[in-house]
Amino acid sequence: MDEPFVILCGLGYFEIKLLEEVSKLYPTVALDIDSIKVNSLKEQFKNCLLIHADASSILTWKKLDLKNLVAIITTLRDSDVNLEVCRIIRLNFHLDKPIIVLSYDNDHEEEFKQYNAKIIKPIDLAVETVIGRLKRNYSKAINIGLGESEVIEVSVLSKSHLTDKKLSTLKAKTWHVAAIYRKDQLIIPNGDSIIKINDKVILVGHPKTLENIANILLKGIPQFPSQYGNECVALENQQRSIINETMYLAENLLAKWTLISYKLPLSDRLNHPKINVPDIIMDKLSEVFSFKEDVGVYVLPEFNDFLHLKLKFIFKNCAKPFLIAKGAYPYKGIIAVMNSFDMLSVLETTIELSKIFNIEYKVLLNVMPDNLSSLSEKIQIRKAAALVRDFESVYKTKINFKTQVKNPVIGTIEYAKHFPNHLVVLNYDKNSKISFFKPHIDYLITKKIKNSVLVIPL
């Protein structure tokens, strides 16, 4: 042909419908081995060139002028024939034009990929469409991108830690909000955008992460640490072993668990169904933080080194939540320290963990004496009280909220002494520096407290 055209291989019922639409875009050449079918369709498709030919024969292709070819669509039921079409186009004619394969089985998928052919499965499309209609609140895009559920649409039906807050505060690494639909209006999200109940959102990211995020938006199901990543990495230090606490955490947190050894090999081989123990010994903490990408939380030992340099390194370099395991488990409760960088995030994480572990939680705020409090500190006190009231209203419960006039570090440590097996939760600004002249509250609490501490960098 003297103009750009498309070749369609196969003329079944579905392919005839496809030919009707493709021919509106490009002049189309259609091949089929059934001469009766080809002749019967010529009157209907006068603007197309219908040829009685075997698409798997190289002779057929040699008779065609492929100079202006735009793409090939092969829809034959036999995967071997479709594969042969790909082989001829790529190896005999050395064409790099797009090849689209409509596949009705799982045969030869890797071989199709080797020929850079795009596989579309009509059955999967139909099933997903039907399921999407039935669910109405959750659907996967299987013909966009990789087609591996890395793009989904979700209706926001439940209040959670993902709703009613700026997207920039979510610190999402393995997923992103691509679009928000609110009252039939499209919102292109930015860092200041907020997800609200009854919104529809388009999410992109790792499929497993998106599945967890969808559950949160649909049902408010607690999913920590999946909003940060799907893997948990624990670092075993024989001087301060964390193995038992790690096993306890692995029984409660849904994630892929990996235990690696620090400095020395494990004294005993750990056999736990949920914890992978690779034959790896790490000598530097920096290696731990680059070991895996999709980490949701690190479980780290309490280091007793000179000047606590290792803990300072962790605070400075860890970009994901980390739990300093001090052996204070099983957890009987959780303490949310509101003297943190983001009180809302602390409270949300605490409530989420309390659901996962099925334990109570307490909220603590240390304040200066009223005559010594600055205006900003007084505003923070009112903000903390308002947050607690809001959460009490949302969750229809009374929150154990204690305000005490004490130094944040000393007050938290003294308070936690009364609750030795309570997990302490706090967060900090990861850009803040640890210095002698400006005390780092979260670092000092983590260093001195006897409880295990979950720390979230923001």
Automatic annotation (TrEMBL):
Pfam families on file: TrkA_C, TrkA_N
BP terms from Gene Ontology: potassium ion transport
Protein name in UniProt: TrkA domain protein
Record-level Gene Ontology MF annotations: monoatomic cation transmembrane transporter activity
Alphabetically ordered keywords of this record: Ion transport, Transport
Gene3D superfamilies: NAD(P)-binding Rossmann-like Domain, Regulator of K+ conductance, C-terminal domain
SUPFAM superfamilies membership: NAD(P)-binding Rossmann-fold domains (SSF51735), TrkA C-terminal domain-like (SSF116726)
Transmembrane parts of this sequence: none
Domain RCK C-terminal per the UniProt entry, residue ranges: 139-219
